[in-house]
## 1
Amino acid sequence: MLGSVFLEIGVILGLAAIGGFIAQFLRQPLIVAFIAIGILVGPSGFGMVSHSSEIELFARLGIALLLFVVGLKLDLHIIRTVGPVALASGLGQVLFTSVVGYLIALLMGMSPVTALYVAVALTFSSTIIIVKLLSDKREVDSLHGRIAVGFLIVQDIVVVLVMIGLTAFGQAEEGVNIGREAGVILLKGALMLIGVALLMRYVLPGLLQRIAHSSELLMLFAIAWAVLGASIGDLLGFSKEVGAFLAGISIASTAYREQVAARLVSLRDFLLLFFFIELGASLDILNLGGQLGAAMIFSLFVLVGNPLIVMAIMGYMGYRKRTGFLAGLTVAQISEFSLILAALGLSLGHLGQDTVGLITLVGLITISASTYMILYSHPLYARLAPWLGIFERKVAHRELDSTVGDEEKVDILLIGLGRFGASVATYLRQRGCRLLAVDFDPEAVQHHTRDGYAVHYGDAEDPEFIASLPLSRATWVVSTVRDRAINRMILHGLKEQGYKGKVAISAAGSYDAKFFEQAGVDMVLVPYADAAREAAAQLFPQKKADNPPA
């Protein structure tokens, strides 16, 4: 006990910063550090801080903002982009994990209600952690990245529906007609959705347009709207989380969603710190030790079972084993929503503190382990690839669909449709070039296919990528990717496949350009330097010297 709440918060923030630094060094998400710091400073540790209404208030605000930002970023376009695989993988994984997890919990002697909570908590993966890891690896726009984000959105929607159901179930008293209670809940939910729809259509667009003249006022309104939505959700018999989620959805279709979301992320993360600290401080270390065996069983199920079901579904739908494997790794952990769900069960009297500790321990184990699995996903795939063939169909892969006929001659096979690659493709087509483009971004593939390009999906970091290309039909292979390691993989693959045509490689600078020239490529492109040289020549054509040197 430190006596002063202000001092308590100061100590918490200082230790959280130190713990965050250690977590960053170990390449772990900050959630793990914050829960560990909560255990350290709580009654089970040094007893430096105690439960306070201020810390609890910060924690509740953090959860409300988390759900608000989830609603704000609810982009159904991502699900449409990757097609039905996001829905099939998301719902299939939720169903599989819930059913199997429930049976495992029952076999371990848990009551049906406790087993249900544990099973549902095992189904959700952390959108925050996964998107951060994929962004760090520059894989958010890859096919497996988009599929992963798609089924994480599906999970986010499911978790909100689960919270609605559990809250309604918790508020139904003994002897009350369950059917009537369900009807009342549905009626309240319908009225709330109608109210949100009316606000989205007639009020919020104009109001936000006026408010947006001041960025400070826009942020204040967003926070107030999130808290107000959470309060209304709680008042109507739902949870604060559901109300905050719907408040986020209500302004997700406006032009200001990105600005609001970007500005709120830091505040959300700051306030969530207190939720994880509070959760850690409420855990009993001795009790956690007794839950270690059960936690290891559930953790192994999440780390192995969840990726396997995603790979099975994606393989059945025609995706390659590599895409299924990389997407499957993103569900090999439980999320902050699982911990929030456990806290909700505790508040409703459905769970005891020991079950909350069990779910938290599973979270710590799976988040820590899956982080390394995702960071080292490519070396891990290289080791496991020979045994993953059962998750891949023998028919033509969905990823390799192309608008080019099998026997049609190709002048240039272009790898990469980024800004530079797309510009090169446009000018080549204007010159009458028979072009086949390849890109790892499924949205770019769809966009350029609609424009009449011959395009198919391909990931240059895939060891089997070069073998999938129609090299025998191409006169040139041109890489507009400026990553040296990827281009070296491409050159190595071309050599292994015995490609006899010409090769052009893009370089990030003069050092890489010299390296590829020495490697014997036919042409080296240096986009920025080439463009700068041409721009300088047009701006200031070189004049002939009056007295040329002897």
## 2
Amino acid sequence: MMRLDFRKSVASVLCSTLLLSSMLSPIAHADGLNNLPSLGDAGGAELSVQDERRLGALIMKDYRAFGAVNTDLEITAYISRLGNKIVQAASESPSNFEFFLVTDKSVNAFAMPGGYIGVHTGLIAASQTESELASVLAHEVGHVTQRHIARRFGQQKQTSLVATAAMIAALLVAGSNPQAASGLMAAGAGYSIDQQLSFSRDAEREADRVGFLTLQQAGFDTQGMVDFFGRLQTASRLYENNAPSYLRTHPLTTERIADIRNRAGLESSSNRNQNQSSLEFELIRVKSIVFAERSNQQLADRLRTFESPNEQEGIKDPVALTYGRSLVLNSMGRKQEALAASEKAIELFKSGQSVVKKTEVPLLLQSQRMRMAMDVSLPLASAPMDRRPVRDRSALNAQEKATLGQLTALRNEFKSEMSVRLMYAEGLQRLGLFAESDAYLKELSQAYRSVPEVFDLLAQSALALRKPAEHHMALAQSYNARQAYLPAIEQAEIAKRYAKDNYYLLAEIDAKQREYKRKADAEREFAKFGN
């Protein structure tokens, strides 16, 4: 692991703020985890709900800008559904939370200001049941609902929250992009902190208690919390002699484990196993495992693992294993074999081979087969988007019509799934049906203004249709969805130049540009807070 010098950076102050849970893996970044500040007790002043949300948004803006957030819509949708079920059980509004995915092998989840909760792919891979994964999310939700984060930041009276946001983002990015992290750190270097930043034992116990009750209320097996915390405690002992100071001082104590076990023991056995792991969880877990494999050798090793299952990982479902083979083969560029494996997974499911019994073919299996079918029959064109031929349906051949029919059927079956909607739009573009994709995405953008991928595809359709004003306006809306307001303003300005005498379009662009300027001004004003 690359070492980062945190001595002259506030990054050392904020690392544990990011890694708020007691679920950190021993391989998480530990350099600079000494001498971190305390957030204070429950009696301290709290950061307001509005400012806490703004701070979280600033952190996420930087984090996304460096590509640290995994945008896979299928896994993100899954952890959001799981998380929102827990949030609702806690009598909170899902609109106040955002669950996002991080590609990292370390077993970790963390809560940030404003209800932003990050989940590492390594955590999903390490969870052997859906209840185990849910228990971690419930613990993190407990930190948010009990306002542990707000209490800490509310005491940083002399600290610029924007510098704080930059440093938190830097530590998050550090795992995968140390150079980018160094740049972010430099932006906030210059103030020193000499207290330790980690949740108090009382706060951790409170998050355990609240999380346990929420897990129970949501209908999950509370034994999942016992099992997962117990495995983490066992794993931490392996690092007993050379453990980083964070793990040596982190309050994942025997008392906490005992308390959780006692709570689970009091629960009636008749209430156990209320929520068995779904096949969707098994498929999401396999996909998370594959995401972490980067090199050709790692992919080859993983392919062998899926062909000869490793008992230690606990993946036994033949449907999930075959699905995993398709994912690995796709990553290796072996598209035809990946398509065959995806079709085999569906055959196994239909013949009742899955450990988890279900009647409908899961979306993940169908979307993987569709994705591979598109790659085989509709490979990505090499020509620039503005040079591709614009076609209509009458120009499609038999195979193209068949693929379009499959895409349409999948879209109709899973109308509410964003991943399917975007796949359908991409399919239209691969077929050269840019007018159709343009109309479809414009309609979609009205309901999903915070999904940047919608506007990214819309920008491509506009470019292919030789509509430069609409192309740049779609880019502006994509930047806006990513909270990058200055680039959004710039793209809107370019769009206005192309709009010329189209007064209706000019008025629309002008209104959007004013909106972006208001957001940029509000962000700038917030940046002055604490200075």
## 3
Amino acid sequence: MQDILPKLVLAPSFAAVLLFARAPVDGSYVVDLLPLMILFFVLFPRIAGPLWGLPSDAFAGMTGLSDTMTPGSISRLVQSDAVAFRAQFAGRPPPPAVRYWRGPVLENFDGRAWTPARGGSDPAPESETGGTPVRYTVTLEPSNKRWIFALEVPDPLAPPTGTRLTPDLQLLAARALEHRARYTLTSFPQHRFGMDADARVLRRALRLPEYGNPETRALARRLRAQSASDADLVNRTLRLFHDEPFVYTLTPPQLGSDGIDEFLFTTRRGFCEHYASAFTFLMRAAGIPARVVTGYQGGEFNRVGNYLIVRQSDAHAWSEVWLEGQGWVRVDPTAAVAANRIEQGIASALPAGEPLPFFVRTDAAWLRQLRLRWDALDNQWNQWVLGYNQERQIGLFASLGFGIVSWRELALGLVVGIGLLLGGIALLTLRNGRRPRGDEVQALYLKFCAKLAKAGIPRLATEGPLDFAARVRAARPEWATAVDDIVRCYVQLRYGAHGSADALRTLAARIGAFRPC
């Protein structure tokens, strides 16, 4: 501690003092906040955890997708306009219809809740990718979850360092994302995967509770009898959702024990989780392997920063079915009921009066632009500081020969460094003020008065500069312009709030050139 502290404090502080006060050619000093920001950035301790919370409660208040989906779970989530993540694309962003950001895959259903499959390790399925790949960088807000939301489907051959791609194409970080994280990804909108799906995986995707929802099971049998193939059955089911009077809403009625039956045949009012759950149940009851996928869909493009903002209000659920020869295929039953949700966002698809966040629903263009500009500034700051974490901060000082620096040493260095910086600025300000010294200005003015006295117009002892100039103009009109310029410059330097070395040099030059005769 005793060896490192002098170097830790003096080196950055001295450099900051030199940079903080720049000396332009006119001799005045300009205050520049950038070095002060650099001092804070380099020395402010990076603490692995929240500044004010305790480790046990640090992430308790975080909201986001869960690995359990029940009626109402996503509709409650989308009432938040908090940012989930941002994505910046190497080229043009893909159209809204393919902006499906894949998250948890849910396979188990107990009659009410969908949860992930537990235990065992599935074999990696066969996959084919084609078309133009989409390259982008995603910056995720802290969630205390491992999911990295990637466009379907992320490149199975090149997951980012520190991540892994599961057999059902969930991209997972090595540990929970307790801090903002950034990943560079490649995805293929044109893809096929799971053509050779393991029999165990397909059997699991057909499981249903032994009892419950008898009307839905009967409907599935009728659809099966009417369909020529699995693909035909999928299309017939989507037409049913489209043709029947279903309503897309954030405020559906409560459902009972046979919730799928009540939704399909009685209430017909629901949000994306209702449609994904009912569709997946129907497929399984008809003998087609199916599962629920949750994540986000869409996003708002910020032209100020050239990136996509995906908020919690973009949370979404859809289905996947397994078809012979095609593998796992995405099917979004919500699109059959409210196509605007996919193409134009949630606000355009919901009836008036739905409890959406104000900033999602507002049509005030100026307010939206203000918000996007603020978000662009916030994002730029995040990107700049994102890579400078606790490990890199420690490594920086270690590489400079300071050894392992504790956060207490960094904090003490920051405090002392700021003190030295401000002291240096005060010293420089005292030694080099903005205004020239009064004796230099007065000496030049006395030289000017001496020239006029020699020419026969002496200044009276009680005569101020303006009165003296008026008397000189009256006596010798031909000197009026030169005298006025000199006196005006003198008054500004002598009595004005702002003076400079340039103005002092100007006054000296004018007096030197003035030759009354």
